[in-house]
Amino acid sequence: MRLFLVLVFFAVLSLGAGVLLSGDDQDVDWLVAGGLFGPALAGEGLRVWLRRSRARSRESSAIR
After folding, report:
1. Where is the chain membrane-spanning (predicted)?
2. How many CB atoms lie within 10 A of CB 47?
């Protein structure tokens, strides 16, 4: 649920910046919007991957 909320937040934020920076034409500047959303998506993906890999390493190092 947290991942979904964060991605929706950054999508709206990047689309808003794309609209604001589009200039006089009433279109979205997709290069700006994608340039802002891409690193947010990559960062959240990295965070999820690190969290899962840490959880797996704790499982495998348990003393039995």
Report:
1. 32-50
2. 13
The number of CA neighbours under 13 Å toward the Cβ of 33 is 14
Report which of 20, 47, 50 is spatially closest to residue 32, judged by C-alpha positions: 20
8/37 Cα distance (integer angstroms): 10
**What is the pTM for the complete model shown?**
0.73
The tens place of each residue's pLDDT in the chain, 64 residues long, gives: 888 999 999 999 999 999 998 887 778 899 999 999 999 999 999 999 999 888 777 766 556 5
| Residue 32 near residue 20 (C-beta atoms within 8 A) | no
Q: Alpha-carbon distance 30 to 49, whole Å?
A: 27
Amino acid at 15: L
The Cα 43–Cα 36 span in angstroms is: 11
